[in-house]
Amino acid sequence: MTKIDIISDAALKNGIRQFLETAPDIYMAGVSVDTVIFGFHHDKLKVLLLRFGNTPYFVLPGGYIKKEEDLDDAALRILQERTELQNIYLEQFYTSGNISRSNEKVAVELAFKMIGTIPNSNWFGQRFVSVCYYALVDDTKVNPVTEAFFTEVKWFDINKLPRVLYDHDNIIQKALKRLQADLDEKLAAFNLLGETFTMLELQKLYESVYQKKLVRTNFQRKMLSLGVLERLEKQYNGKSHKAPYLYRFAQTV
Amino acid sequence: MTKIDIISDAALKNGIRQFLETAPDIYMAGVSVDTVIFGFHHDKLKVLLLRFGNTPYFVLPGGYIKKEEDLDDAALRILQERTELQNIYLEQFYTSGNISRSNEKVAVELAFKMIGTIPNSNWFGQRFVSVCYYALVDDTKVNPVTEAFFTEVKWFDINKLPRVLYDHDNIIQKALKRLQADLDEKLAAFNLLGETFTMLELQKLYESVYQKKLVRTNFQRKMLSLGVLERLEKQYNGKSHKAPYLYRFAQTV
Fold this sequence. Notes:
The structure is a homodimer. By secondary structure, the first copy, chain A, is an alpha+beta fold. In chain A, 34% of the residues lie in helices and 24% in strands. Chain A folds into two domains: 9-190, Nucleoside Triphosphate Pyrophosphohydrolase; 199-249, no CATH class. The first copy, chain A, is elongated and about 70 Å long. Chain A binds chain B through residues 28-31, 65, 67-72, 74, 92, 94-100, 127, 129, 131, and chain B through 28-31, 65, 67-72, 74, 92, 94-100, 127, 129, 131.
């Protein structure tokens, strides 16, 4: 089960105040990072979103790049801060830089009014170009963490997203398309299915990512033709001979 | 033939001074754009590079994002300024943001000393995260333009690159890999082969991008299986019946 924390109004105000005081010294201005964390378990594809302050709006887990930090390291740190996930495979897929992506500044200002803080800092008034990464994880292994601006961390079904701020909706759709295009190639890297798995488990993963039912025989033929799967010998343990074959990812040299 | 302009030292100094005075008002700080322009004609794949000042170093055609300009528009504008190419198909493929990419600041400072200008501005001392795009063009249609920092614009064989500054070498290699991966899909968009073309012309394009010889029969089978080519009826014009078939890209609905 996903743990859902709610943080207090006072802690929220304090967190924001502290952030705004120090942000310009710590972070690069004008560039942000957003991560689309897809969660898979059983046959559902979900996306991890954070509730912005105590508003009804959600955003992607994101943050800023420290002045003395590599871009990829920033993405990993941000993900770790929000999910406690480490050593995760993060793929950079897009950088979003339209002027219009900040049109929802109004909503953010509203959010701050609701919180009761009127920031002197212009940090959030800046235009940000956002470098976007995606990951695909087993959502049962994620331990979402709330802090500063975010009062709730929650998995949403990809087809039942809440209202999201900025252009994060567009970023989620772009990430999904890229995941679909990359899945064959990145499958082993996502490390999602455990040491061994059945063809049916693999098919359920594909169906959740492609958002449609696949024909079993075609799917099996396609997967075997990729040359990345290794079929294990059946263990004759006295149980049913109808037990499905187990597969694992072939070791690459 | 590619036109090569050399601009004078005085024009160069003046251009740099003017740029440094106005840059912070015009452009976003901390984010740059670099474009890898692949040129193809006959069977060579080339890359367009600019000579930095009057140094022996070259850089990719790049620039900065105006404060009121979309990221993609900035990339198109920069390309147009350097090559006079318009309506070109530019593909964003990577954002480079390691700290170490600016390690060659020393080289840039050296360059400025050689030019004789010691800039008061810290514009070039900033850390830049660079959003990278690539394009594939017919190099005979490009009209390279020199201005401000760049004293020469030149096509280089992909296998005979000069010394390039920053991490531009790495960016070129990443762009080539992405071009190879995307070629089947983007082929028609690059608009590179004229209205009609032979299978051999297409094969030469692929061989230049993949940097290896391909087997004619396999190549033909693969290309036809993509379903993007339309074979035209041979024109019986009294000449040799051995004239090769002509192809064009099928109209997509």
